[in-house]
Amino acid sequence: MTASEQPKTAIVFPGMGPSGFSEVGRFLTLDPFARKRLAEADEALGYSVFDRLRDSEDDYSEATQIAFLVNSMASADRAEQEHGLVPDLCVGPSFGQKAAAAYVSSLPFPEVVRLTAELARCEHAYFAEEYQDAVTHTFVRTPREKLTEILTELGERDEWYDYSGYLDDGFFMVSLRETELEWFKKAISQAGGYSMYSMVPAVHAPAFAELRRRAAEEILPKYDILDPKLPVVTDQEGTIVTTADGLRTMLLDTFDLPIHWPKVVDTLKGAGVSKMYITGPDNLFHRLDRTKSNFEVVTVGPGKRSRPARKR
């Protein structure tokens, strides 16, 4: 077997989902890897992330985002030290892009902490002015043809919607007005689907081109992004990024392009990946059928037992 034919390993930094302070705070306090990363984050920002997290009531506040980043990087540290992880490729779907940028050394971790904080403030300001009633709804077990019918009805009523994520067969994220959410959830249920959760503010929607512009012109120019030390698979198109320009574009694409996990899986399979480490607080990606059926999956993070799940 040649070197190119050797089975490869990918590291995946998950996207954010709703989480409670008790579990996150406990991990930040007790895990030695998290404590080290938290101290770096505190120094980078000049305030106590833990204190602000404790006082926050927002699932996606600046402090919550920083804590998620800290826990994801701490989980990767643990995977390297305790599992001997040496990945060949890196993926960071949705919010996981930020941890991925730090892991592949395109930006030092303290810089990613500051970037994350600045982007959180930028998003907060944008959604205070635009799309104030937008939500992103995640749901499963919904046939594509049925979803098309539902969205067609929305369009016929001149209601806005955008696809924000293609996660698996019958598993989607759609952004829409909050005033239409209850109707949408009922329609999903009638189609045989199951609603999971709704995110505020909304994410990954083509309508948010102005947010992308603000990030591109006001935030990212402050940071000297470098070529990644290992290839990164974009979560939008599944393309492989090896340059600073490519990584910068990926970070901007997250604002107005939907996630497409099946394309990521196809790219990883095509690259010869057979084992995947998901490092961070993940309640989604390691559970997807497309993930479990194609890779040996090891989860390392808060609430995880750091054990591999069998490949089906």
Automatic annotation (TrEMBL):
One of its GO terms (biological process) is fatty acid biosynthetic process. Residues 139-199 form the Malonyl-CoA-[acyl-carrier-protein] transacylase small domain. Keywords: Acyltransferase, Transferase. One of its GO terms (molecular function) is [acyl-carrier-protein] S-malonyltransferase activity. InterPro entries: Ac_transferase_dom_sf, Acyl_Trfase/lysoPLipase, Mal-CoA-ACP_Trans/PKS_FabD, VinK-like_small. SUPFAM superfamilies: FabD/lysophospholipase-like. It is an enzyme of class 2 (transferase). The keyword Transmembrane does not apply. The keyword Protein transport does not apply. One of its GO terms (cellular component) is cytosol. Its EC number is 2.3.1.39. It catalyses: holo-[ACP] + malonyl-CoA = malonyl-[ACP] + CoA. This is [acyl-carrier-protein] S-malonyltransferase. The lineage of its organism: Bacteria, Bacillati, Actinomycetota, Actinomycetes, Kitasatosporales.
